[in-house]
What does this fold into?
Amino acid sequence: MLEIINLHAKIAGTDTEIIRGLNLTVNAGEVAAIMGPNGSGKSTLSYIIAGRDDYEVTEGDILYNGESILEMDPAERATAGIFLAFQYPMEIPGVATMEFLKVAMNEQRKARGEEPLKVPEFLKRVKEAAASLSMDMNMLKRPLNVGFSGGEKKRAEILQMKLLQPKLCVLDETDSGLDIDALKIVADGVNALRSPDRAVLVITHYQRLLDYIVPDKVHVLYRGQVIKSGDKSLALDLEKNGYAGVIGEAA
Amino acid sequence: MNMHAQMHTAAEKALLDAYDQRMADLPGDSAVAVKRDNAIEMLKAGLPTKRIEAWHYTDLRRLLTSVPDFEPAGNAKALDPLIEGSAVLAILNGQTTGHLNNVEGVTVERVFEKLQNGSLAPALEPDGNDDAIGALNTAFVSDGWHVTVADGTELTTPLELQDTQDGGQVHLGLPVHIGNSVKATIVERHAGKRPGLTSCVTNLVVGDDSEVLWLIVQEQPEAATHLAQFNAWIGKNARLTVFVMNSGGKLVRQEIRVITKGEGSDFQLRGINLLAGETHTDVTMVLDHAVPNTTSRELIRNIVTGRAHGVFQGRINVHQIAQKTDAKMACNTLLLSDDGEFSTKPELEIFADDVACGHGATVTEIDKNHLFYLMARGIDEKTARGLLVKAFLAEVIEELEVESVVEALESRLDAWFATHG
It folds into this structure.
């Protein structure tokens, strides 16, 4: 589903290369974890997949279902089924959350040639998704993410993911700022989305989240490259022994 | 005004000629005629230039390039009220039309008649030599609605003073006297089919313990000249909220001059300017905190597209006796084009020592992070930009809280975006 080939990327307008020849394949039905120390390029990778223009790809390619997405803007990638759950979701004053959800869902439907959702159907879907994440509907009456706690913002990201039903979900440090109860709720939300035609890329610093979202594969990112791949036992090993051993092996 | 030794501009000459031609037809007794003559003497000295501080960003002498003829026979039509169910007092091509159907506590008279009988003569008084709008209006004012709201009246539906025109020149007076313990929402609306020149002076007195929401909605045609002045005096424990929206006109100046006359009074100004094309729009506020224990907040939001130039001047004078004044002013602008421009001049002049006053101004572009976030959810760039721009403005509108008012203003926003988005 996702194939990243010898990807090189730098911060746009500078010579600072962050991704340095990264190779990664994620298959449909798979949950892959990306782990790595601070500054290894994890968040950058998630932004590049989503199409943020602060980064410039200088070499290599990103294929999604066999086709390059590098020329697509973030909205086109999203309507194609790519979803990034942000590490730091934006607070946008003045944009009502419900209005935002409706526009996003209908824009994606429009891009797929579907009719816009009728209001009762839209409300029903939002209520169901919110209930499954133990979110108060009153929260959704506020402007987008404004005044939400860290945990509420993360839940709101998963809510959006549930409503938009993407095919490739990229979760950028979704566990940061979550207490253990919220973590379980968020993990349940992600697990409910696991399906044979969907892939999930979990970017995380710690093993903790992977106790709840059990990965099929674990990849270690260091200095902009995947230096080691394995199964879920690799995450446990990293938790116990730290990154130094793996980095040493690769060097 | 200016002591130009030089010749009059074409626009100045047209105004002076128009006065000579119209003098005999203008309504008013001898007292009014004297006021008009004095005002025209001010105009003879020339329109203000950027050398006059209050007009620094709006060089009226340079910007007013032409003055249309009078066309009292124009074909203006009344519009549906801004807020559904409002009682409309219409002014078509500068002439009051129709009457008010039984709104309890409200009496209306025609300014035309109050000029004829001279009772408005004392109110015709430009405020010093730089008051070009006051002078222009005094010279030519011909009609408008004089509204009185009796003590204790609670208006259940808004009142709309609706000026529509079809080219030519229109000079209006809107004296409104609100008694004590009144609750009222009043819409002052300016629109037209063909561009013309409008001057309008509103004088609002708000009695003690009253609560007034005054909405100025200016949607003149693209090539129109709109010169307006809103003066208000606020009584004890009274609250006045003024919302001004400019989304039309080629040359626009809206002056807002407010004095807190009674202790415990509160003034709120909210404004949005939607600027497009090659236009010039100036909102200039002068607020006097003249007694102790009064509060004010001003929040202006602007979007600038095309080659438009916007101006906000906000001056807050805190008089020496006005202790415990609490005043805050902010002006935020979204620049959406490379050639747009916005000038902000906040001024605080404080003579009291126990006050809390502040101001802030920002000029920004659309936040890239916000745009990316919306696009990452599949919202295309144009739609996402539209959402963010509207959000920036909607914050000001939503603060008004009254649902029917918020909906009405948001629908005007949508109408503007439909043609300029």
